[in-house]
Design a protein that fits this description.
Blueprint: H1 7-10, H2 19-43, H3 47-56, H4 61-73, H5 81-92, H6 96-104, H7 109-114
Length: 122
Amino acid sequence: MKREDDFQERRAHLAQLSDDELHARFWELANAAVAPLLELGRENTSPSIERSVLLRMGFSSLEAKPIVDAALERGLLCHGAGHIVYRYAKHAGLDIRGAGLALAADRGWDVAAGLFEGGMAQ
């Protein structure tokens, strides 16, 4: 089976574009293709993803689990467990590790929850 060569027809709408315009068109299409993936990443998470984030922040799995579980119970997981730890640390004047360990020990959640839209995510 021979493939019809229709390259010239398919590129007709691009033929008049300069290199700069082609470059801009490429990035416009690339951004459009990736935008739904970025949106999913911003709006969707799971406990396992959030535990993974905390592991990369230096917490052990035994330390990460209670932080994620508590964030989930309080409706804060959509803000990101790492973000919660970071904001709480900044607000309380603690280092990241100290803030995370306090949250893992179930201390400071009222303050941490108050840093995010009054506590409960909608």
